Amino acid sequence: MSTSDLLLARFLALHPKLIDLSLGRILRLLERLGDPQKKLPPVIHVAGTNGKGSTIAFMRAILEAAGLCVHVYTSPHLVRFHERIRLGRSGGGRFVDEALLVDALERCEKANAGDPITFFEITNAAAFLLFSEHKADVVLLEVGLGGRFDATNVIDHPACTVVTPVSLDHSEYLGDTVTKIAGEKAGIFKRGAPAVIAPQEPEPTAVLEAAAERVGASKLLVGLQDFNVHEDGGRLVYEDADGLLDLPLPRLAGRHQHTNAGTAIAALRAAGYGGLPASAFERGMTEAEWPARLQRLARGKLAELAPAGAELWLDGGHNPDGGRVLAQAMADLEEKNPAPLVMIAGLLATKDARATLGHFKGLAQMLFAVSMQNQLAARTAEEVATLAREAGLKAEIAGSVEQALREIASRTWPAPPRILICGSLYLAGEVLAANGTPPV
């Protein structure tokens, strides 16, 4: 176990609750550290239920293609904590290295002096400390949970605030309706800062618009109303009041990524980066990467277990709306290249598995239910299978992803199957680690 792992394990004991939304504890720690959050390059702050990470991935790819250095903070990680903190460098950012991470974590631990603080809060403070001490042109900052009381919401003057599509998730913390959740996400809007709202359903849009206007956002850009993105002739066309961009289709698979790409462009233009060369936006579409979001696994230990000619896909979508867009992506692939869809799924007990999996009724031929290895809140394979059957799917139990792949390979299919591993980012992390292809 590395030193950073030991430090992170100690942090888990500093607060009795893993999630306890509040700003008081982190503001206290940041003050002791010299308020590093006030010494950052321009910050683009991103909240939302789905699409946050992909939107940030597009922004990072565009900015780096223009030669800018970009710090990035995202969560959760898939395999190693270091994935959460990307330090900008010439030629492209890199995950924080072990020595820098250990130093920042130790200084945060010393400054905190044993006071109650959550794991996310103290590690978020470490990211701010690192970002303040290493030069960059931009910080892309992803909200962990909600927005209003999220530990990232300590940036007083962001260059831009963004809310990606809002749907039901984390209802025990954010509220049991989409409008309540949207109200929490809107907590990142700041007076004098542009606010960008991704294309989404009318109810959350109305809540977000009203909140941005109430707080005094300097500019309000609402998807479908103030900016639009659509596919035309195998190209991605982005339009707003500042003009049109004719771009390649995104490298990230799924039509929902068109929305994320459009939101990223709108955010960059609102934040003052609209003058980047057209080539940067073009390269951003084709170079953006975001692991475990409809990621094709073409090589690795698990990929080798799949039947010859099969496709192996991995996605971390874990809520009903994530299930909807993922099922749509699978339907689009089926239309272009028909193949039997076989699912391998594992979900947390805190997620609506029946609603998430229900979108695949009539689309998937079979689902193999698995349980995650190191998650206390993971549903058992038996529970996942039962909920899948209740959602109208044919389901069987497998002891592991490896066992499920071997079972799929042992059976006869009318054509090489399209295999989708899905249901949780935690499961996705286990898969990438077992496959030998962690994010790098």
Automatic annotation (TrEMBL):
Alphabetical list of PANTHER family matching this protein: DIHYDROFOLATE SYNTHETASE-RELATED, FOLYLPOLYGLUTAMATE SYNTHASE-RELATED
Recorded GO MF terms: ATP binding; dihydrofolate synthase activity; metal ion binding; tetrahydrofolylpolyglutamate synthase activity
The entry sums up its family as follows: Belongs to the folylpolyglutamate synthase family.
Q: Does the keyword Magnesium apply?
A: yes
For this protein, the record's Pfam families field holds: Mur_ligase_M
E.C. number: 6.3.2.17
Q: What keywords are annotated for this sequence in UniProt? A: ATP-binding, Ligase, Magnesium, Metal-binding, Nucleotide-binding
Q: InterPro entries attached here?
A: Folylpolyglutamate_synth (IPR001645), Folylpolyglutamate_synth_CS (IPR018109), Mur-like_cat_sf (IPR036565), Mur_ligase_C_dom_sf (IPR036615), Mur_ligase_cen (IPR013221)
Which Gene3D superfamilies does the UniProt entry name for this protein?
Mur ligase, C-terminal domain, Mur-like, catalytic domain
Q: Per the entry, which co-factors are needed?
A: Mg(2+)
Q: Where is the Mur ligase central domain?
A: 46-267
The cellular component terms of Gene Ontology attached to this UniProt record, alphabetical and capped at eight, are:
cytoplasm
At the top of the EC hierarchy, this enzyme's class is ligase
Q: Per the UniProt entry, what are the Gene Ontology biological process annotations, in alphabetical order?
A: tetrahydrofolate biosynthetic process
User: Which organism was this protein described from?
Assistant: Bosea lupini
Q: Which reaction equation describes what this protein catalyses? A: (6S)-5,6,7,8-tetrahydrofolyl-(gamma-L-Glu)(n) + L-glutamate + ATP = (6S)-5,6,7,8-tetrahydrofolyl-(gamma-L-Glu)(n+1) + ADP + phosphate + H(+)
Q: By what name is this protein known?
A: tetrahydrofolate synthase
